[in-house]
Amino acid sequence: MNAPLQLERYVFTKLEIEANPDYVPQEASSDNPIKLRLDIGLGEHQEDSTKYQVSISIDELRAEKGSLPYRIALQVVGQFSAAQNFKPDDLKKVVQVNGASMLYSAARELVLLVTSRGPWSAFQLPTISFYQAVTEAAPQEKSSTQ
Fold it and tell me: Which of 22, 25, 63, 107 is deepest in the core (most CB within 10 A)?
């Protein structure tokens, strides 16, 4: 059985992870909300209405208090195939919400892998919901407690 949305391919077009030399692990707190600036893009194929491109970009990541162990900026772009089980406007929202969720999951895993080889402990991007970000349709600053 095919899912309504298939991820065909994704690529990281930008990945920057830099250890923060001023980070002090003893000052870190697990209840310190992390803010990230997130941009979600959607492109539609000109000839095939079942093909979409979704991109997510993180260009700012910071803690509400203190500093984070790493500076992280990335962009990931994915190509998707979608079933025509939805109204056109609903389909775009389904592709954007679910496509961005799939790409963000891949980004979280890559950041965790790379930072696990860094000087500080492995860092995991916070979990977020893309539903609100897509319905507001603007670059978002998300806050999450890690």
Answer: 107
